[in-house]
TrEMBL record:
<dbReference type="InterPro" id="IPR029056">
    <property type="entry name" value="Ribokinase-like"/>
</dbReference>
<dbReference type="Pfam" id="PF00294">
    <property type="entry name" value="PfkB"/>
</dbReference>
<protein>
    <submittedName>
        <fullName>2-dehydro-3-deoxygluconokinase</fullName>
    </submittedName>
</protein>
<dbReference type="InterPro" id="IPR002173">
    <property type="entry name" value="Carboh/pur_kinase_PfkB_CS"/>
</dbReference>
<dbReference type="InterPro" id="IPR050306">
    <property type="entry name" value="PfkB_Carbo_kinase"/>
</dbReference>
<keyword id="KW-0418">Kinase</keyword>
<keyword id="KW-0547">Nucleotide-binding</keyword>
<dbReference type="InterPro" id="IPR011611">
    <property type="entry name" value="PfkB_dom"/>
</dbReference>
<comment type="similarity">
    <text>Belongs to the carbohydrate kinase PfkB family.</text>
</comment>
<feature type="domain" description="Carbohydrate kinase PfkB">
    <location>
        <begin position="1"/>
        <end position="305"/>
    </location>
</feature>
<keyword id="KW-0067">ATP-binding</keyword>
<keyword id="KW-0808">Transferase</keyword>
Amino acid sequence: MAKVVTIGEPMIMFVAQTEGPLKDVAAYDRFIAGAEINVSIGVKRLGHDMTYITQVGNDPFGAYIKEFIAAEKINTDQVFTSESFPTGFQLKAKDQENDPEVVYFRKGSAASHLGDAPTPTIDFSEVDLLHVTGIFMALNENTYAYVKQLIADAKQAGALVTFDPNLRPTLWPDEATMVARINEMAALADYVLPGLSEGQRLTGKETKEEIADFYLGQGSQGVIIKLGPAGAYVKVKTAAGLVEEVIPGFKLKEVVDTVGAGDGFAVGVITGLLEGLEWPAILKRANAIGAIQVSHISDNENLPTPQRLAEFIAAYEGSGE
């Protein structure tokens, strides 16, 4: 069982029960959202030890999140409670045709204040991998510094670092700052996981090969690019030289909700790396979990166990798709 650490902000997510603009919605279903908590759940369900660093408010939302994390058997010793700041939440529209409208209520949240005081330290001596995204680091200067220090500590101890840009432009003061800081953090990571459009926006390059070369040139060991339904591409430095692969995705008859697909993809990459899989197998797993994710409205409820993942791949391949 490998040990993984991540840091992020979990939020209560209210999903509209009916389609249409959020201003017209009268009833919602409650879930929990957050890219890093999605990854934590997925990694844990695939059999690895998971520690999630965060802070929630001393309120009903925070209490529910803490119970949820514990129920998923994610380590809670780095889940802190603020007496001064509330737990963030979001509203999410129901839209089966496009990316749904999402409105955040997270400014001044408990998680955004996690880096204010002297922060708790993590002993990375027994940690195999640190996963970070571009979301938590974007909340303020303190969360940015906290993430950067975590990466430095992890690398000094010999842990792998994976980085998903997970762009949230509304969290940044401007485009230039977002691009500069995301690319700065990507240069510190061993593996960078942008989507194709993210990579184009961040690097100014057009093709997947050019994007990969940009990050490899910054010092990353490997770049894994999400290509949506087309699958995924990897270019990675190995002892035998550069390895380059494109693995097709899983074509689905129906897409329910695209939110969370990238987090599922990251779960596949992280667990594949930890288990020593070859790159075609890693990308196949990542593509499969991403496909499973888009077939369910929740961001994380459908994340698979090993058995569920194997059954999905077998059923798909048996169907002749």
